[in-house]
Amino acid sequence: MKKRVICIALLLGMLCTQNAFAQPSVEVNGKPIETDAVIIDDRTYVPLRGVFEASGATVSWDGENQKVSIETLKFASDDELIPGIIESASPSVVGIIGRGKTEGYYGSLDSIMSGSGVIIKTGGEILTNAHVVKDMSTILVVMNDGKGYEAQLKYIDEEIDLAVIKIKKIGLPVVPFAKKEDIVVGKKVIAIGTPITFSLRNSATVGYISGLNRSIGEPYRLIQTDTAITYGNSGGALINMNGELVGITSSGYSGTSTNFAIPIDTVQYVIGQFEKYGKVRRPSFGATFQEDWLAELGIPSEAGLTIKGMEKTSPLASASFKNGDVLVSVDGNPINSIVELNELMKSYTPGDKVKVGVKTGGEVKYAEIILDEKISE
Amino acid sequence: MKKLIVLFICFIMMLSVSGAYAYEEELVVATVTVNLAQGAVMLNGELLVTQQAPYVNENGDTMIELSVLVNALGAELNEFEDVYLVTVGETSMVYRLNSAVVEIGGQSIAMNSPVVLSENSVVMVPLRFVSEALGADVTYDGELGEIKIVSSGGIDETANYNLLFKYSGKDKIGNSEEYWRFTKTDNFDMTETYYDGDYEFLMDDIMMSFVVCDKSDGVSLEKLYIQMQEVSQYDRKVMFDKGKGNHNGTPYVFTKLRTLNVINERYAYETEKYFYLVDIERGFENFASAKEDAIVNTFLESLEFDYKGGEEDITVDLAKAETPENFSDEKKTEYIDGNYRWSVKLDDTWEVDEYYGFYNQVSIYRQSGIESDEKENEDVYYYYDEYEGSPSITISTYSAEDNQTVEQWANKKRSFYADYFNSEVYVVSDVKNVKIGNNQAQYFEVHYSTDKSYVKKMYYINGGSYRYEIDFSYDVREEEKDDFLKSAEYVICSFTPGQIDINEVGKTLESDNEMEFIKVLAEYKGDMFTITYPCMWQVEESETGFSLSSNGYGNSYGYDMLSLLSPQLSLLYGVSDDASLLIEKRSLSYYDDEMNQKTYTLEEYMKKNLAATLNASNALLNVSMSGEIKETMIMGLKGYCVELDITAQSEETYYTIYYLPYQQDSIITVTKNCGKVYKNTIFEKALDDVIKSLTLS
User: Fold this and answer.
1) Which of B165, B358, B458, B651 could join B536 via S-S bond, C-beta 3.0 to 4.6 A?
2) Distance separating alpha carbons of residues B384 and B366, to the nearest angstrom
């Protein structure tokens, strides 16, 4: 059978142009697999064994009877699945320990700080929370196997609270990223990190995604989860049942089951910005905004954002808007909270042109403005 | 398919083994610059030959020739049909043509774009992924259209916890009397306590305690070992380890005990003279942590015993100190103090600051250039208040009338320093003989016990009618300057006592004794008055007169209390346990209720003033007159004199107030304030002498 497929492939190779030769890529459960798949007469042919084995089935070949038997697994229970996921993800979650740049109140005793990180690049880049590493003078990364390596801070964005550090090590295991659409309330997730003390590093807790888009005075949306996230868990991985990274554990209300993680789409946005610009370049309207009090409480509001503290050079000013006017939409997207605006701005870069809708003197006026760049402190 | 995979794995194994074995490839330090517009690839600034220019594909990924990139970064590339194996040390990465899946370290990782063949059959790979997988940093400069790939080379292969626990030579902690010390890891603050012969150190939350016992007590290491293993029922401890060992030639025994949450490690070391017992206690949580293990191990490894005291014998025979070569003759100057009592030779790096007052001190300074770290040396500053950030040689001259020998004097001063300074914090050396020039002198040294960041070297010399104290204080960092010690020794060594008799100078010098100081008088000429007063006292002028106090502390507790309790009593300036004098001119004019200007008579003013003062008595403050109002005569002015006893809390003060008529509508009040401890002492007599010396200017 294999021979025949190869023959066909060769034949096709001779007969067709290069375009037709392109192999279709095959993914099983979101993971690309290596196949010799071909398309013949609009039908895709794949090797039986490769596909089924990749989907977890066992394939056996009875040569005497020329029979292929395929046995798919029963749905594995959580108890069967979770240890495997933790085992495969743990090597990608590291402990981060360092000495503070400034002495604490009780001397350098309390300036040893620790957190967690997630290996995102096989060549040594590790993602963590900005607050974990920003005050460390020496950053030590401790791998799952207990080995420690000195890390350098590569990128940092305090607003989203993410940072990338790098160790001089290659061939490291990474966690694949989940898709934004896979983050659904009710899905089971596992938090892996270094809670409370360093001696508990790489401990895992299981819970659910209990909410999305929750903002608690944070400028960006967060995932709410009931997995126990404590102090040292910061920067650790929130993993879904496919073993994919859905977020970076970030903060929580200590001692409660209300904890937060930075969602993967924000993580990807930040990494993308880091790679392009070395920092997160944020568009700016040259003004600050005041949320409606309902929005401040987290209650859906339709009151827009009141423009405050507008700078002279503000693009809003050049469109002759003034303090006290209310921003209601950007490029047709209604804006009612600062988080909404920040989230929307992730798809823009400074210099982009946007159409803003601003309520001034009781009526909504529209104007095209060019976004400034927000200067970070 | 399976066969193919097996074959492939064999192939990888073969390659990776041969790769590691034959080549020992290492990543190199390299900067690869890719200019997209020009299609150029540069390695460390030199243009590389490429078969295919880099380009940006439909996914937005920059594609680069695999062999060019991998070679530039120093990795090894092997090709096998459509499989490309990139090897660095023990790490291998498998790229396959037309596939976006890479196998690295047994893990499949998806790239954004697959490996492709360019039109002219060159293997092209996503630049960022392949570079970063090899540990390089990729940055993109949008303005220049340039991509920079920086490889720092090398890979950390060793775990290195020491990053957190750096050793620092300065952090030698120890006890010079019992001859032990250890090195502190500088990331951890340490609290040191000394109690009844035991030292305790708290590092992080590990408690380490030290007991040193004499060997003459008939103890043996074996006995200690048995003792150490005794576990009291009450403690509920379980022994889980014990043993014997040798630490740099020092035999020791140890036991390790634990409860559910506490670990105790006990060590006993035997040296020629002493047994050193060390107990390390820590919580179980910490026991499991590598960080804490490292602290304990560092502590144990760094222990030193019988190290002969931390302080090397630094005595220099100053008679032997040679003139530094770099002092040319023209730079040399001689400094002779104002009364020809002594002289020194200086080079122009030193400056002289004369202070003629009570102390008869002359300080010789040198510009330091070392910034004083006030935060770090806060307590040092407290004790070394004379240091002030510059190295100084302060020479004080005292009278030798009390016939003390210089040995007695130096020993007295040494015991003063030893008593005054906390012996746990400061080390005061023994008094030793030194020669300064041709003169025999006595010497001791004071410095911080943990390090010698500040050193105070005290020299005592007798010179005929005088005694001299030379206080040489400096920051130890000065010693790093080549010529510093030489230069300072040269100055000290050149010290020559004067040969002039006291009578020729015409002034009596103070002996180093406060009771004697009071005899040395100074004159003060104010606008209204002239007085003669003990030169150690301080005169403070105000608009209405001046005050004189026996020390510089001015308002003490008693005064503050009094002024709080009774504001009108503030005329009684300076209720304190000092001896002080306040002389003031006061106006007799006042305005009555109808705002008519009136004038008191002296008697009226006195009565009103006294009534207000006496009226101020309450539960906490008692003011009473002792005796009657007396007539008196001062400065040729006939007036009155009142004596008051004032008790505020526990402070007892005696006041004598003189009311004297002065000019048309004013009076002079002289208030003598004498704290209980000074009543009927030399100080009160001195005050009376000052009052007697009052003359109108």
Assistant:
1) B358
2) 17
